[in-house]
Amino acid sequence: MGAAFIRPYGDDDFEDICRMNTRVHNEAYAGAVFVRQAGALFPESFFILQGPHGVSGFTIAAMVQGHPPEGWILRLHVADECRRSGYGRMLLRASVRSLAVSGARTVFLSVAPDNTAAVDLYTSEGFVLVSRAEAYFGRGEDRLIMEKAV
User: Fold this and answer.
1) What is the CATH number of domain 5-107?
2) Is residue 109 within 8 Å of residue 150, measured between CB atoms?
3) What is the pLDDT of residues 25-80, one digit of tens each?
4) Which of 27, 38, 52, 71 is within CB 3.0–4.6 Å of 99 for a Cys-Cys bond?
């Protein structure tokens, strides 16, 4: 597959990340707003996976305001053609590391219950299931809430 590395998000990545985000979440405008604001609000925890053929994934994480020992991984996405290459693990570790450096003692994330590949990845990296949230993102959008002590 070739070498890949993690680097900070930059404004030049905006279009690539919006395109990837829209493919997954089908929310062109709302997704663009989220990506633009995440770039401004979370510059130390918004990472790009630079693959052999360009931008191949991204992750966005943030500390919980008013509760500094907690952080959340908000998004983690790897392009379909790059999955099962260890890139998701690279992005996950970058997010957890950045949150720990910022003072997080616990990192949370949510994942679709039927996304077994992601659940397996998160479990292998020390995340444990803490709850199942019905309709977390609306009807039909249940999520598993997982956490990891760092």
Assistant:
1) 3.40.630.30
2) no
3) 667 778 889 999 999 999 999 999 998 889 999 999 999 998 889 999 999 999 98
4) 71
Q: CA 1 to CA 56: how far, in whole Å?
A: 12
Total residue length of the chain: 150
Contacts of residue 37, Cβ cutoff 8 Å, sequence gap at least 6 = none
Q: What is the DSSP letter of 6?
A: E
Domain ranges of the chain: 5-107
Question: For the chain, how big is the Rg over CA atoms in Å?
Answer: 15
Q: pTM, whole model, 2 decimals?
A: 0.91
Phi, psi of 83 (to 5 degrees): -70, 160
Burial of 104 (0-12, 13-18, 19+ CB in 10 A): buried
Candidates 16, 22, 108; CA nearest to 62 is 108
